[in-house]
Amino acid sequence: MSVLIDGSPAVVDIDRSEPPRHVTVLSLALAIVAAVSAALTFYLPDVLLGPAVTNGNARGTALAILYGAVPILLASMFMARRGSWRAVFFWFGSMFYLAYNAFLLLFLTPFNSLFLLYVATQSLAVFAIFTLYSALDRDWLVGQMRPPPYRGMAVFVWVIVALNALAWLLEIVPAVLSENPMSMLDGIGVATNAIYVQDLVFWLPMMALAAWWMWNGRGAGILLTGSWLVYGVIEAIGIAVDQWFGHQADPTSTWASVEIIPFLIGLALVNAIGVVFYMRARRVDTGG
């Protein structure tokens, strides 16, 4: 089946015909492996060997993967193959979420019997993102959109990146300058905070670069920014779920709080409004 919108060329693939087989196969494999690892993590909690609060966090994340990110991934793949250009952003956004949280399951939970499944999820997510990005006709995709305010969106992204980085540095710098840097990890049972690692090493720099591309009207920046908005909706809801489960597992821990949940739901709504605004069609269409 060709991916068409009102007779327009295909959404993915340079030759504008069928999406390359490996794109769909990798994404489908990712959905299956992620669902299996998440189901085992959530429904077999004894496999988790960390403190109660991080075990609760991991189960909440697994629940968000199983009933949130994986269904969104499968639905967006199906809709993109049927011609929806908007679904491509959800395809990327759901895979961003799976890649991000597979990393946390690998490094923010102590080594356990599901390690290889977490590794497979992380690897499949990385390669599925890369292959879809490589196959996508970004110029055609951008051509379907009503141009958003590129420079305004770029500034918005830079502000979020700067605030996020500042929040982490305000926690990290005092810790590394203290007599006992490991004190900041008390109660979570790991050697380092994987959230700081991947945010500061990859995700925040990537979004800063994507914003620069968007500032200059490049398709890569437009694609990544829109996908990041979708990821933001899923991630905010996922954090709310993992905070609730972590708090239920250990109400005394400072690593999980139910008070932050209303803020996270509000953040998800703000991102959702951004998604709706961002993905307006250039013309009336029936494919998205």
Number of strands: 0
Number of helices: 9
Secondary-structure element order, N to C? HHHHHHHHH
Compute the gyration radius: what is it? Answer: 19 Å
- For the record, the count of structural domains works out to 1
Class computed from helices, strands and strand pairing: mainly alpha
Q: What is the rounded distance between the termini?
A: 16 Å
Tell me about the biggest sheet?
A: none
Briefly characterize the structure.
70% of the residues lie in helices and 0% in strands. With 288 residues, the protein is mainly α. It has one domain.
Could you explain the architecture of this structure?
The protein has 288 residues and is mainly α. It has one domain (21-278). The protein contains nine helices and no strands. The chain has helices at 21-43, 52-81, 86-107, 115-135, 138-143, 150-177, 194-215, 219-249, 261-278. Helix 1 (21-43) packs antiparallel against helix 4 (115-135), helix 7 packs antiparallel against helix 8 and helix 8 (219-249) packs antiparallel against helix 9 (261-278). The longest helix has 31 residues, at 219-249. The relative contact order is 0.16. Mean pLDDT is 89; it is low at 1-18.
Which features would summarize this protein structure in a list?
single chain, 288 residues, mainly alpha, 9 helices, globular, disordered N terminus
SSE blueprint:
Layout: H1 21-43, H2 52-81, H3 86-107, H4 115-135, H5 138-143, H6 150-177, H7 194-215, H8 219-249, H9 261-278
Helix pairs in contact: 1-2, 1-4, 2-3, 2-8, 3-4, 3-8, 6-7, 7-8, 8-9
